[in-house]
């Protein structure tokens, strides 16, 4: 092996985890859901920055609710896909 695990930094391992998560999400979830989740993520980040700067976390609540809803949809989609795979 031309590398050892010790040669990777925490940042390197974090990048690999993030790349794996993005790849899995984009290949295992419906495309429309992934696109909506990504749009919501970008918008939510801006809202979070604003809410944090103004110490107004109540204004971020609708964005957080949307994020949680997308995570539930993602989980449901994943479970349905796994069950369908097990039944076939």
Count every beta strand, where a strand is a DSSP E run of 2 or more residues. 0
Low-pLDDT residue intervals, each spanning 5 or more residues: none
Helicity range: over 70%
Average pLDDT score: 86
How does this model look, in words?
It is a single chain. The chain has 88 residues and is mostly helical. It has a domain at 30-88. It contains three helices and no strands. The protein has helices spanning 10-28, 31-53, 61-87. Helix 2 packs antiparallel against helix 3. The longest helix has 27 residues, at 61-87. The protein is flat, with a radius of gyration of 17 Å. The mean pLDDT is 86.
Short description:
This protein has 88 residues and is mostly helical.
Helix-strand blueprint:
Blueprint: H1 10-28, H2 31-53, H3 61-87
Descriptors:
88 residues, single chain, 3 helices, mainly alpha
């Amino acid at each position: 092996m031309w590398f050892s695990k010790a040669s990777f930094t925490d940042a390197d391992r974090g990048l690999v985890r993030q790349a794996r998560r993005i790849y899995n999400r984009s290949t295992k979830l419906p495309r429309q859901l992934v696109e909506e989740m990504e749009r919501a993520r970008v918008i939510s980040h801006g809202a979070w920055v604003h809410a944090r700067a103004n110490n107004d976390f109540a204004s971020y609540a609708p964005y957080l609710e949307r994020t949680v809803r997308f995570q539930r949809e993602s989980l449901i989609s994943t479970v349905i896909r796994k069950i369908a795979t097990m039944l076939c």
